[in-house]
Amino acid sequence: MAARPSIQIPAPGADKPSWLRVGAFALVGFAIGVAWPKLAGVRLGPAAPAEAVSAVAASRAAEMASASAAANAPASTAPAVSAPPTPAAANVSVTVGHVAILSCKTEDGESLKGKDCGWLTGLDPLIQTRLKRLAQLPATAENPGKLNVILGLDFKNNRISVESGKSSTVKDVDSLKAFIAGEVKSMSLKPVDHQNERYSVLYVVNISTGTEAAAASSNATTTPKPPSGEALPEGQAAVAWETAIVRDAPHTGAIVAHLPRGTKVQLGTSEGGWYKIKFGPSFASEGYVYRGAIGK
Length: 296
Known about the structure:
- It is a single chain.
- By secondary structure, the protein is α+β, with helices and mostly antiparallel strands.
- It is 26% helix and 27% strand.
- The chain has two domains: 88-222, no CATH class; 224-296, SH3 type barrels (Roll), CATH 2.30.30.40.
- Strands 1, 2, 3, 5, 6 and 8 form a six-stranded antiparallel beta sheet that branches. It has a four-stranded antiparallel beta sheet with strand order 9-12-13-14, with no helix packed on it. Strands 4-7 form a two-stranded antiparallel sheet.
- The relative contact order is 0.11.
- Residues 75-83 and 220-225 have low confidence and may be disordered.
């Protein structure tokens, strides 16, 4: 006869898990979960903020090092800087002769030459002052020689044109001519006493450098002598222009005489740039002459 099956019912509390054993398993699993990624080199999430900040700092440090290396680079790698223009040499002398009338046109359109054109009183002081400013131009120091300046005077429209003569010996005629054009561009012809509406006149400009300039400057400070070279008594002068116009009154007075270069005159009072003079045999004749015509 078979044995009868039996059923065992556990006592109360026997079916509860052992918390000690559970805790041991949990501790071992945590240790393995933390240690294994580090040992295997596996990143389980994004970089921590501290690591990102360190990466940015390293990048900026590299940029600063690169900038410092560029600043300390040899001077030969720096871009070239253009040198300032060379100023004109201090020992440059510019001397300007008196006006020479080449030709003119009357109000009726008639063309005349030289002395037939009449007078141009008061032009020399205006033009000579501007031509002497060539000494301030840097290019002048490199262009010693002669420059023939031909001016076209249009009294009706109050304009001046500038050309250069073919016999000029300076190298860079164009730069000197351009400078002169700028100097006379705004000059007014109204102070100049003239007989005709249009003139073509010549000024000879001599440019010297070095020892020649020093000699020219020294000679310029000496008292001018008449063309003959003789010294004149006190109160006398000699005509310095090719022809000096003598009038019975300053500026617009009637013409009473034409005195050639070298004629001696006795000086009287000065009035607005005009001298009252005595001239002729025994200085018996009187009139007025512009100061530039007698070198004053």
